[in-house]
TrEMBL record:
It is a lipid-anchor; GPI-anchor. Residues 1-20 form the signal peptide. PANTHER family: GDNF FAMILY RECEPTOR ALPHA-1 (PTHR10269:SF3), GDNF RECEPTOR ALPHA (PTHR10269). It comes from Anhinga anhinga. Gene3D superfamilies: GDNF binding domain (1.10.220.110). Residues 29-111, 150-229, 239-333 form the GDNF/GAS1 domain. The gene is Gfra1. This is GFRA1 protein.
Amino acid sequence: EFVGLCLLSLDVLLSAEVSGLPGGDRLDCVKASDQCLKEQSCSTKYRTLRQCVAGKESNFSRATGLEAKDECKSAMEALKQKSLYNCRCKRGMKKEKNCLRIYWSMYQSLQGNDLLEDSPYEPVNSRLSDIFRLAPIVSVEPVLSKGNNCLDAAKACNLNDTCKRFRSAYITPCTSSTSNEICNKRKCHKALRLFFDKVPPKHSYGMLFCSCRDVACTERRRQTIVPVCSYEDREKPNCLNLQESCKKNYICRSRLADFFTNCQPESRSVSSCLKENYADCLLAYSGLIGTVMTPNYIDSNSLSVAPWCDCSNSGNDIDECLKFLNFFQDNTCLKNAIQAFGNGTDVNVWQPILPVQTTTATTTTASRLKNTGSETTNNEIPTHNDSPACANLQVRE
């Protein structure tokens, strides 16, 4: 049975973790590292791997390159049997940066394609309907709404102590003073990360993904993350250069990998998302805000977003650069997720009500699609749920 689990897709393994299946319990990387260092065999292999990643020539010289590669491979194979290999981090955790440093020391030299890096964060597997149930600012009949939803979201934030406190905390460092045209971007980004890490999604999402029908509303939505300071700069860097800059920072690289993982488009899926989960995509997107990769809406006429970069001066890397930029600008998964939140709709999954059983976590995406109906109400963007247990919650409302 354990061998079978190992052969399942990553999507199934992540579901298994949440459902508590055997093998699904993962330590955070800080605890896993401490545990490994107390065990001699694990500690020796871990230190070897870290030297491989760092490329210390004192230990692995060019003369013994082949031998060094074998030793590195041997160390990784040995660590695959340890909890350190499957460790993950939680966004906003107390020792997040240290946790991510440990994670990337395991993986940063082992993943080739930047767009396919696995997320170092523990999956949340939440649903938008959970947020909608608690958010009074989302209109029940969005089509009939004539107000400014983004203004309503800002007012709702001010009525919530946590939201108001963290919003006030980022406004000051993100605003240029009259004597200085340039704000403190580092402090601004840190405050913004705290805002999106600490404020409940029903409030932070309300300000970031509010639906709009006029320019006044869309401009307020664009200004939510104070683009003059946190987003724009005097010159636009090349997107690949910005990506390299991001990868040098553990938090930025992790948030970007999380975005690539959870907002990966898939044209054959019902929702246009490979992971079939709008909530996880929006969480990953919001996690980018407050990093050098901070994205924003391109204009007030669409839901297209982009980081502050372009593909000029890309030379022979133009295709790679455009692929990276288009993952933001033309991402149907992200656009559908934003629209779903703005419309106040989540996904209805027409499945029979089943008891909560851990075995449901092993259902593959293909078989879920086969058993899922496409019926939706008029305002809904069709998708489906990752777990029948979640669907049950919605059916019972």
